[in-house]
Each structure stands twice: as C-alpha cells, then as structure tokens.
Amino acid sequence: MVDTTVTGLVVNGLTHVYQVQSKAEFVCGLIRGLGGNLNDVKKVELAKFVLGMAHEVAPDLRRPLDTFYDERTGGLATYQFEVGMGHVQHIVICTELVIYELPRM
C-alpha cells in the first residue's frame, strides 16, 4: 500500500466518479479511484466488495480488475487481451517456464 492522506484518497475517488451516467460506471470509477494506492491483492478485495455492495457482477469473477464500463452496451465488460508477438513487451525465459509480460490497459 502506498502512503497517502485521507484528502488525497477522497479526491482521487471523486475524480474517477465525476460525471458518471450509470451505477455500473460509478462502480468502475470508485474501484479505480479508491484502489489507486492499494496493492493488487487488496485492490481485488476492494473490487469484489464494491461490486457486491452495488449488486453488480463482474463479467469474469476471476479477473475483477479487468472490468470496465462499456458505453456501447451500457454495462460491465472485461478487457480482452489479444496475444501476439506485437503485443509482447518483454519475454523472461526461465529453465522450463516462459512468462509474457503484457501491457495492462
């Protein structure tokens, strides 16, 4: 977790929900705004909590942080990653394991 002030946390949260048009869009903004200074484990917990409190369901429950508000459908959607050699930024080769690092959108 990154140290921040309460004011900084509130301002970041409010910035991400400014001018939202729907509950689903509000939920995504709130998760991004309040989770900005959390590590990934805590951010996943926050996402699940906020989605549950809002009675919204992430399209992919295994990847709640990859959820975004889709203006075309008016609901939640999951980022789809197309893996091709043009998208791979860095390849780490271990003894028997290849790990691809992809840019997170």
- Which geometry do the CA atoms define? globular
Count of beta strands: 4
The largest beta-sheet arranges its strands as: 1-2
The total of helices stands at 3
Number of domains: 1
Largest sheet: 2 strands, antiparallel
The ordered H/E elements are HHHEEEE
Describe the overall structure.
By secondary structure, the protein is of the alpha+beta class. The protein has one domain. The protein is built from three helices and four strands. The protein has a two-stranded antiparallel ribbon with strand order 1-2. Helix 1 packs antiparallel against helix 2 and helix 2 runs antiparallel to helix 3. About 6% of the residues have low confidence.
Write the layout of secondary structure elements.
Elements lengths: L5 H12 L5 H12 L5 H14 L13 E4 L4 E4 L11 E4 L4 E4 L4
Antiparallel strand pairs: 1-2, 3-4
Helix pairs in contact: 1-2, 2-3
Summary of the model, kept short:
By secondary structure, the chain is of the alpha+beta class. The protein has 3 helices and 4 strands; from the N terminus they run αααββββ. The longest helix is centred in the middle third of the chain and has 14 residues, at 40-53.
Which labels suit this protein?
single chain, 105 residues, alpha+beta, two-stranded antiparallel sheet, 3 helices, 36% helix
